[in-house]
Predict the structure.
Amino acid sequence: EVGPYVWPSFTSAESFMGGGAMEYPMLVMNEPDIVSDWIESLDVTVAHELGHNWFYGMLGSDERAYPWLDEGFTQYMEDRYGAWKYPNGLLKRRKLFPWTSPLRDFTLDEDRYLARVYARDEMPIVTPAEGYHGYSQYGVGAYSKPVMMLHSLAAYMGDPTFHAFLREYYRANLLRHPRPADVVAAAGKAWRGDLEGWFRPWLEGTGIASYSVGGIRRREAGGKRLASVVVRREGEPVLPVTVEGRFADGTRERKLVRPGQGDTTVVFTGERRLASVVLDPDHQVIELNRLDNRTGGPPLRLKPLLDFSSSDAMTFLYGPMVWHGRAEGARLGVWTMGRYLPSNDFPDGVLAAGGNVTMGTRRGDLSLGGWASRRVGELGARGQLGLAAARDAGLLRAGGHAGSLATAPGRRHPIREWRLSLDYRDRYDLAPVDPRYWSPGRGLHGKALFALDTKGPRRAEHVALDLRGGSSVFRRGGDPGPDPDFHYERISVEARQRLDLLARGDAHFSWRLFAGSTFARPPRELLFDAAEGNRVDSLGRYYLNDRGPLLASGHYWVEGGGGLRGYRGRVALGKRVWGLNADLDIPTLPVSLFGDLGRVETTGLGESGDAEAVPAEAARGIIGRTLADAGVGYVIGPVRLTVPIWVGRPEPGKEPWRARWLVSLESLPISF
């Protein structure tokens, strides 16, 4: 498609060199770990590095001044090669997952590009290598965005003319040093027209096209059916777009909407009834959002457990929920979770929704819930607004949240986050939960979270301020057992740091400081625990049911609170807490040593004695006293096993030196 290989030989070698793979004229190298049992990564990597023998090896562009001239063209050829050789995608073992959408290089490049656009962190293609602020920007500006430009150019020109452009670019610049102007000149010569205006928004700008289609309007005139739709256009660059009408008899008709500003009305005439309309059916235009490209609602995919996302549709995954609780017995149900364009910047996607339904087999308890969220640019580049409602075992809750995350350019630190939420909760039944941790009643609860993350050479820090307040509402005063009245304010601060003690990263020291206080009359679920986080913050994890096999066992630890791991299960709840935790991790073993120090009080900061803050029986003797513990930990993949071996104030009748064990699964993404 480009031109002949002019060098006398070519060698592809496996070698350790750092960075995965590297190219030189007549020689490409890849590291051994490029090989994968699941993805055709070796083949497409070698194809990419081989492509460099044309794009900078024979067409000698400046890789630092114009990185897109070699990386962008080469990535485009890699995408074309992968689509040609692997029409069913790059997944090797697709027979194990036959329902999954094809995994393609082009889809990955488009997702990376759109993530930077949504994060407002994109750079023009002409940016030199040193002008990028991080690899996330460089990877898009030098690789993925040029692929989107060349893909759009091929659609605009048509394949024969586009191939003529590639051959002309090769012919005119073989063994020379081309610049961006040479690309534009070669394209213009193949097109037989001036394309500078077409290239300028791509090369020098950061705009992106966005099309949408309105509903179908039908009428009759002269015995013929007339059906019209309005195509709306926003953003840059201005590109033609295909409109496909799909008729009730199964036939289709296409019309081309020429570049223009504002709205365009497209009319379909004839005896056939227009059933639906689709914009850009061949995915020739790169858009901000393709969910509004058809009439009749957004395109959706429903897949079990696993799929590869793309901009063409919103994917809903679904799967079974199987759990056990002491009150409700086995819980059986189903969950679903839909995300559109998930990425590191938008883990839940720019649009998301989900829900679950479970049934307790012992008591017949029905639990169900649903949630939805979307990116809201007015709140910030990564701003998000969401709603959620659920009826769990013994608890009805509903609420909304808004928040945003801001980073330095290139998704670098510092990272600043804020989040506001308002929730209504009605704990109408204590049987499914541990009453030592919960209060009955209805209440409104507000929360404001502000966090800052910083990172430097061999260190990382996190600081968070958590403000909460609430009061009981809709009290059932006439009931035989009226709900307890509560009203409270709550504040907590957490600071932690991780240090690499050795340059090679063979040892890490981390510390965490937590302090908090509640005031007035808080419900029990918002008291501070000496050992762990509170139950409210775990409501989104169905597997952390109070009377389920994890928490009820006393051997499961939820990070948070005072963090004194040796006191898990002691119900050391209070209105005021402080805790200091220290860990020494040795990843090569992988073993860690830890020690904790802290204290829980029954009164809030500045408050006098509170007769109602009576500690649980298991906590007597430790409330109001300084506590300490020490132990070892062991990491097995995403599972952390924690073994406190010394506790300063053990349970009655127990020795301070005794092996206890805790397990944590918090790094597993099973929070449906």
Q: What stands out?
A: DSSP finds seven helices and 29 strands in the chain.
